[in-house]
């Protein structure tokens, strides 16, 4: 019996679909099951009283506010009660306690990482026969963070994903499967991410079969690139948007879905720009074009500003709903 532990910090559309697929597929296999979900973000998996309504209400509002760009509400996944959720508060990443709980008590022999932000150590990985990671890039290009955003920003003709065996090196393990979708002109990153996620979900069962059959995977070949957290922050955090051209701002928005711009002394999660017109938040770019902020965190800017004045908006915890990696 192969016992799988899923590692994930995200419960948004792509991740939710992958986890749902893994559990459903394992349930249908007599020699396979999902034994636990490990997370550093327990809030993503909690369903407190009223939380589902608030999430659904916000998703509906965002969908109505972005219907013209093809935005759809994120889908969340509720972990079945028979699958324990192990949090980093109780079982720190790479700890002996986590290793004992998974391997010795739950009989886990396979790790499946789906948007997990922690780095699993060589010692921890060596305790399990198989460990597989999902990375939304065509490895070895775009290892590290925000791979979809950097691929689009670089002008790649396609974005892709890789399922690979995990090694101590970040995103460096042998490849089990890859897939890609074309980057169409004007197609929002949220739509591209959803298309890529659908393809990854369809590919996951064959990956689990390969792991069960002991497939070693193929070594990564080609030029490798890596993007760090510092590089991501330098791309999306813009303290002086007035020193950037309109085209560069739009290029970054198209790639990453959201930017944090400092305007009028405030730091705002900007998801859409427009001609200044009636917008209260506005600035002039380095090439002399006056722009206004029409959407913040995928919601109309006027609504977010009103909520902030009433104390109901937390910019530090709100941003693009796109899973760009």
């Amino acid at each position: 019996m192969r016992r799988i532990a899923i590692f994930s910090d995200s419960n948004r559309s792509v991740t939710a679909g992958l986890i749902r697929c893994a559990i459903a597929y394992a349930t249908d296999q007599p020699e396979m099951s999902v034994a636990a979900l490990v997370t550093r973000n327990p809030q993503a998996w909690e369903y407190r009283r009223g939380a589902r309504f608030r999430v659904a209400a916000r998703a509906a509002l965002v969908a109505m506010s972005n219907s013209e760009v093809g935005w759809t509400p994120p889908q969340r996944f509720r972990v079945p009660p028979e699958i324990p959720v192990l949090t980093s508060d109780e079982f720190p990443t790479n700890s002996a306690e986590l290793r004992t709980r998974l391997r010795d008590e739950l009989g886990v022999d396979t790790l499946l990482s789906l948007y997990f932000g922690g780095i699993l150590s060589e010692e921890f990985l060596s305790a399990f026969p198989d460990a597989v990671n999902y990375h939304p890039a065509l490895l070895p290009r775009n290892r590290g963070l925000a791979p979809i955003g950097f691929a689009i920003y670089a002008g790649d003709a396609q974005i892709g994903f890789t399922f690979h065996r995990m090694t101590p090196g970040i995103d460096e393990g042998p490849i089990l499967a890859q897939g890609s979708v074309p980057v169409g002109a004007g197609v929002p990153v949220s739509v591209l991410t959803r298309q890529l996620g659908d393809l990854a979900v369809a590919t996951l069962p064959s990956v689990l079969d390969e792991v069960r059959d002991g497939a070693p995977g193929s070594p990564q070949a080609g030029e490798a690139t890596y993007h760090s957290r510092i590089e991501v922050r330098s791309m999306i955090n813009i303290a002086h948007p007035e020193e950037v051209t309109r085209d560069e701002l739009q290029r970054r928005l198209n790639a990453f879905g959201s930017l944090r711009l400092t305007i009028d002394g405030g730091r705002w999660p900007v998801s859409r720009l427009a001609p200044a017109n009636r917008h209260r938040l506005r600035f002039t770019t380095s090439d002399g074009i006056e722009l206004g902020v029409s959407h913040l965190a995928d919601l109309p800017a006027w609504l977010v500003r009103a909520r902030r004045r009433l104390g109901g908006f937390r910019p530090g915890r709100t941003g693009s709903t796109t899973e760009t990696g």
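Residues 189-212 form the longest helix (24 residues). Residues 229-317 form one domain.
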